[in-house]
């Protein structure tokens, strides 16, 4: 599998559709190799996705729904080290009938690319535990934010 080219960080920073959040690197995120463990990267991606979901969709999908991650792919580009911070830039890349694809970058506190990520989240019906199509209002919100 070939590695995709590094994203244009300047373009991402300038794009209002990219939502940024920041997390503190904790000592407990480190492993025996002296860097932040790969599992912590997934947590930072989750933090960015949750921020994006709340910021973009809010309650437009209905109180009787939730999102479930169907696919998560992370490409590690550089180590992260404690102490420090990590910034996640998150944007909506694709919209399906009941799913949305998030693309992300993780940057260290110096602005260096540490990882790229893509996740597919499916809108689920709380009662049936099955996928549910996006309501028209939610679909319009996501379509306006697609990058």
Distance between the first and last residues' Cα: 24 Å
Largest sheet: 5 strands, antiparallel
Shape: globular
Number of strands: 5
Low-confidence stretches: none
Average pLDDT for all residues: 95
Q: Spell the H/E element sequence.
A: HEHEEEEH
Helical amount among residues, as a percent range? 10-25%
Instruction: Please state roughly what percent of the residues sit in beta strands, choosing from under 5%, 5-15%, 15-25%, 25-35%, 35-45% or over 45%.
Output: 35-45%
What is the alpha-carbon Rg in Å? 16 Å
Q: Strand sequence of the main sheet, in spatial order?
A: 1-3-4-5-2
Number of helices: 3
By oligomeric state, this entry counts as single chain
Structural class given helices, strands, pairing? alpha+beta
What is shown here, in short?
The chain is α+β, with helices and mostly antiparallel strands and 147 residues long.
Structural notes for this entry:
- The structure is a single chain.
- This protein has a 5-stranded antiparallel β-sheet.
- A hairpin with a 3-residue loop joins β3 and β4.
- 25% of the residues are buried.
- It is built from 3 helices and 5 strands; from the N terminus they run αβαββββα.
- The two termini are 24 Å apart.
- It is 24% helix and 37% strand.
- It is an alpha+beta fold and 147 residues long.
- It is globular.
Topology:
Blueprint: H1 9-14, E1 19-25, H2 38-57, E2 65-76, E3 84-95, E4 99-108, E5 113-125, H3 136-145
Antiparallel strand pairs: 1-3, 2-5, 3-4, 4-5
Considering the chains and any ligands shown, give keywords for the structure.
37% strand, 147 residues, alpha+beta, globular, 3 helices
């Amino acid at each position: 599998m070939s590695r995709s080219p590094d994203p244009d960080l300047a373009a991402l920073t300038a794009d209002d559709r990219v939502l940024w959040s920041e997390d503190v690197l904790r000592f407990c995120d480190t492993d025996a190799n002296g860097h932040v463990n790969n599992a912590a990267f997934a947590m930072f991606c989750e933090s960015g996705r949750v921020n994006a979901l709340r910021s973009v969709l809010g309650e437009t999908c209905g109180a009787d729904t939730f999102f479930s991650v169907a696919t998560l792919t992370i490409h590690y580009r550089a180590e992260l080290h404690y102490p420090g911070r990590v910034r996640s830039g998150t944007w909506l890349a694709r919209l399906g009938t009941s799913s949305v694809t998030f693309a992300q970058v993780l940057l260290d506190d110096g602005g260096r690319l540490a990882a790229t990520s893509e996740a597919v989240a499916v809108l689920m019906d709380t009662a049936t535990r099955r996928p549910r199509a996006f309501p028209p209002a939610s679909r319009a919100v996501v379509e306006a934010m697609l990058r």
